[in-house]
Structures are given as structure tokens and as C-alpha cells.
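Here is one chain, start to finish.
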Amino acid sequence: MPLKLHGLPMSGSALPIVALLEENGVEYESVTCNLMEGAHKTPEFLKMNPMHCIPTMDDDGFHLWEGRAISRYICNKHKLESWYPSDPKKRGLCELGLDWHLSSFAPSVAANILYPAAGFAGPVSDETVAATEKKWNEDLWPALQFMIKSSGGPFIGGDKPCIADLHIFIHAWATQKKVPNSFFGKHEGMTAYVGKVKACLKKWDSYAQAAEGFYSP
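Its structure:
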């Protein structure tokens, strides 16, 4: 029985998992969970995920939520070594990248630049945008560069992207695509990183059409 992934095709949390599955030929079933219609609050959904969030995974009755946890599980189950290395130092950098994305990048750039533009959140003030740009330049971008340098580059995963690169890429790509005139959209270093990760996703055009359309300016 194939794994079922409940979510939305344009979700920045679900798309990294879809990419991981598609790029590695892992059989799965995509199940649309329309939040606007309350599909995540039904009794059936709550039995899988009492946090009623997406993405949610159902692997023959075994349930997980949180995109990064799902990605780790898929890599472990299917032995996707290049995406989630077993070497302690490489794994450590991958874990650091995943945690950095969750605790630092998503609450800053994604929350303050992408989400308002995509309709996921209300508008933010000019002061908030300026503070986000300052944090990006002084903290977040240097941190990402540090992780890439530590791996030997050009990715956190070294010469190939790991799942940390994948999760960071999706939010970064969506932000640059949706808000191209923002400070983040114009950041040459991040544009280069995004392009390098995307070039490694050979099947992107076959599964990202909905996201490509949704995140168009």
C-alpha cells in the first residue's frame, strides 16, 4: 500500500516531501486536504493528526505530521543516503539546516515576506520588512553560508542537496518567485543557491505545476 500524503500541492511544507518522493521514485498517493473547507478538522483527519495541520502522512496506518519529520522518515525507510547522510558530521549539518529553517528562516523571511504576499497572513509594516532584511543580512545569510562552507558546498549536503537544502529551497524559491522585487527576491547569493538546488530536481516540471502557478507574482 503506497504512502498517503495529505496536504495541498502549493504548500511550502508539503512540496519538499513531494519533491523527495518524486525525485526518488517512491510510490505515494497525494490526498488533497482543503483547509478552507475544514477537511483538517474532520473526525477522520483528527484520528491521524490531533494537531490538524498539513502535511500529514499515512503510511499503512502509521501517521506523522511536521514536514521535516516526514522527510526524515521517508529517507530512513527508503535508505536515501544522499538526502539524509548517515555520516555523523554530514548528518549534523543536515539536522542543523533543518532546525535553522524551522526556527530562523521560516519565522522571518517566509512569515514576513512570503506569507503576506501569498495570502497566508495579513500585511506587515515597513518596519517589520526592514527588520527582516536586517536579520537576513546580519544573521540568516551568514548562517546559511557557514553551513554550506562547512560541507564543502555548494549545498548544505555537500556536492548534492540534502533534505535541509530541499526544505530551505522550497520556501526560498516561492519567496523569490512571488515577491521578486523584495530584498530577498533581489538577493544574488540566494538566487544562485536556489538555482543550483532546482537544477538538481530533474522531475520538477512534472509535479510542481500547481506551485509554479500559485507563486507567480
